[in-house]
Amino acid sequence: MENNSNISQELLETIERYLNNTMQQNERSLFEKKLLTNTELKQKVEDVKIMLFGIETSALKEKLDIFHKELITDKSLYKKPKKVKNLLFTKYAIAASIVILLGFGGWWVTNQKSSNEKLFAKYFKPDPGLATTMSSTINFKFYDAMVNYKHRDYNIAIAKWEALLQNKPENDTLNYFLGVAYMANKNDFNSIEHLNAVTKIKNSVFKSEAFYYLGLAYLKNEKTEKAIDFFKQSDLEKSKQILDELN
């Protein structure tokens, strides 16, 4: 539920009139037309409805508590509360509890957007790429895709690099940049596949970077222990910083 502090006093009073059925017919008609097209207004109405419901429930409980105390104090008037009153209070109490639990649940889920996801968002940045200065035919195709990659046209870059990879399946440069491009394109499965290939290539200059991005991929997917294992195999300072934050 949104914070009601961003609702003006005038709008709050208007919504209250609408919910309490105290609007004039012409005002109500205009307001309901706005609700059909204004999703933000519709959400504010729902927020105020929940707020008012909570207040009414709280007021009802206070009245019942006072009523019960008065009955107990005046024993001559004491009668066992009718079951219908208990049922009424129970109904409102349960509903209020649901509202509270839903609100808390939303807060909990938001805050559980786990520390892992927050760390991923903090540290993930696509590799800046290589300088596009080579001129041979093979290199031209690679660096042509690199231009797309640098412009964040990841789908185009991926298609071009995948075509080149068919002839050089163990090329660490192609696998590495494909892995990063797939991750930037939110395809963790393919990203992990290509980055893993880099880590198995002996003496690859991209090995530490590949371990780093693999750690981020598993961190994002809540596989913390596996992520830690990959970060430990990376010599990058960023990997050490993440390990410090995870401990």
Q: How would you describe this structure in keywords?
A:
12 helices; 2 domains; 73% helix; Serine Threonine Protein Phosphatase 5, Tetratricopeptide repeat; disordered N terminus; 247 residues; mainly alpha
TL;DR?
Helix content is 73%, strand content 0%.
Can you walk through the features of this model?
The chain is mainly α. It has two domains: 4-112, no CATH class; 121-246, Tetratricopeptide repeat domain (Serine Threonine Protein Phosphatase 5, Tetratricopeptide repeat). Helices cover 73% and strands 0% of the residues. It has helices spanning 9-19, 25-37, 39-73, 83-111, 115-123, 137-150, 154-165, 172-184, 188-199, 207-220, 224-232, 237-246. The longest helix is centred in the N-terminal third of the chain and has 35 residues, at 39-73. It is elongated and about 80 Å long. It starts with 8 loop residues before the first helix and ends with a helix. 21% of the residues are buried. InterPro entries: TPR-like_helical_dom_sf, TPR_rpt. It holds the Pfam family TPR_16. Keywords: Membrane, Transmembrane, Transmembrane helix. The chain crosses the membrane at residues 89-109.
Please write out the topology.
Elements: H1 9-19, H2 25-37, H3 39-73, H4 83-111, H5 115-123, H6 137-150, H7 154-165, H8 172-184, H9 188-199, H10 207-220, H11 224-232, H12 237-246
Helix pairs in contact: 1-3, 3-4, 5-10, 6-7, 7-8, 8-9, 8-10, 9-10, 10-11
